Amino acid sequence: MPPKVEKEHLNVVDIASSDDDGDAQTVARKKASSLGERQLRRNISSPEIPQSSGSITPPALPSDETLDSRSFWKAGNYVFGPTSKPALLEGALEHARVHPKFLHSNATSHKWAFGAIAELMDNAVDEIQHGATFIKVDKIDIKMDNSPGPALLFLDDGGGMDPVLLRKCMSLGYSSKKSNTTIGQYGNGFKTSTMRLGADVIVFSRSTRAGKATQSVGLLSYTFLRRTGQDDVIVPMIDFDISGHWAEPIIYSTHDDWSSNLKTILEWSPFSLKEDLLLQFDDIGPHGTKIIIYNLWLNDEGIYELAFDDDDEDIRLRDEALREATTKVLKKTVELQSHISYRLRYSLRAYASMLYLRKFNNFQIILRGKPVQQFNIADELQYPKVVTYKPQVAAGSKECSVETTIGFIKETPTNVSGFNVYHKNRLIRPFWKVKSDGSVIGNGVVGVLEADFIEPAHDKQDFERSSLFVRLENRLKQMVHEYWKGHCYLMGYQPPGFAAKQKKLLANQHNNSSNLPAGGKQDSRDLDVPDVVMPEGDLASISVDQLCEENIQLFMRCEEKAQKEKLT
């Protein structure tokens, strides 16, 4: 679709920001991304362990900004002055207002930045039903307050949003997603996720509804609201009708209000010229949505939370503990840190590879220009077993059954275990450990299941603590014990109670030998002892496979002996 050019018949009026309820209410929505330039190259001493790429220079802050105002967990502490209460129109009802601080407190539901990014990916995945074929996630450089800085971008080719949908999306708690297959349902994910990642977000969306093609721009700027002392959430938005040869502004009240919204967007977004603003639609195509999140949050050290320079094909979370541990690490630690169960904590590419249970047929997640390869750990299990669980749902609810694939994980440290629990195809709890800490039972046992019968929490990183959840947890514990009892010997472990059985067996053998007459002999077939006693110094020369085979043989002989005792 050729780019639309706006007619130059509208002049921008220099007036204060509009408070019109139709054009400025509360927040914005989904995805965005365009391909940013790669400026920094990979600087990692090991391909498996992320390292800090030398000294990191904190970004320059504007004169009226402090580190606290740019650190997410402190950004809600600013002091605002007294504000005047607007007079009510005659006959109008007073309405509840939302203070800008609520945007910050609402976003704290995301403790983990990757959880916020996943919310925006979910929005694109939900657009598959409207023809979406990709979601691009990337980093670009922008200039704000005369200082360059990174911005996070998302771009999809879904159905897009018309002016009505964009305003509904920017309203708190509204959701039009009522399908059993869509991931989003609370109408809050966009607001919490964008504000968790950065202080400001601008949304561009194109859509065609009922034969009318439109493009819209919406700005949610915590920086604007805070610096101008607003006591209500104001979101300037502008819309265009692009059905013809020109991008015609859609006017809801007056030209002055439309121009005021445009002026606010140009002043507080990375695009100070109207021409630059409209150019952002060029890579969207005839339909889709693009989001740019800027003024990204800093950590307590004044460094960006998200690291873009450690790997130019990934986005990572800065991990101070891991960076310190790389100076001197044990072999076991290195093995653990190289496994995906650990890497998904700091690598967006690793996390995105496991984020959705079923592989897409005609949809891709493209992270910094490279497609993410989807990965299901159930395909990598040794001695897999499928266990069916039928949860006790509420009376009147449709009965359901859940299939859980469980097995031993391949070539991994023994302390990796747990269940990857999905809800409507989306990963909610990765490697959920249900076994007791310190117990050898369940070491290396991993399971995968989709639990659509329980509801996820609002941040989609856990489940609501309902009775169904508690019963599921107990069933998974039982599942681990049952699988371990029947399969642990295949990995060289002694089954539960094996030591007691062996001790009892040896005691019986001793009693039998003491009751023999003088010079009597016992049938060697009744003696369950190894044919060869290996000296302790030679144990190191025995391979793991040999130990596993000996354990299997010993286990089978003990079971056979126990059966004989039951019959006598």
UniProtKB/TrEMBL annotation:
Task: Give start and end of each Morc S5 domain.
Answer: 346-484
Name the keywords, alphabetized. ATP-binding, Chromatin regulator, Coiled coil, DNA damage, DNA repair, Endonuclease, Hydrolase, Nuclease, Nucleotide-binding, Nucleus, RNA-binding, RNA-mediated gene silencing
- Taxonomic superkingdom: Eukaryota
Name its cellular compartments: Nucleus
GO biological process entries: chromatin organization; DNA repair; positive regulation of defense response; regulatory ncRNA-mediated gene silencing
Per the record, the major location class is nucleus
Q: Which InterPro entries match?
A: HATPase_C_sf, MORC_ATPase, Morc_S5
Keyword check for Coiled coil? yes
| Region annotation Disordered: where it falls in the sequence | 13-66, 510-530
Question: What cofactor(s) does the depicted protein rely on?
Answer: Mn(2+)
Composition-biased stretches (Polar residues): 42-56
Q: What GO molecular function annotation could you give as one example from this UniProt entry?
A: ATP binding
What's a GO cellular component annotated to this UniProt protein? nucleus
Which protein family is named in the record?
Belongs to the MORC ATPase protein family.
- What is the protein named? Morc S5 domain-containing protein
- Organism placement in taxonomy: Eukaryota, Viridiplantae, Streptophyta, Embryophyta, Tracheophyta
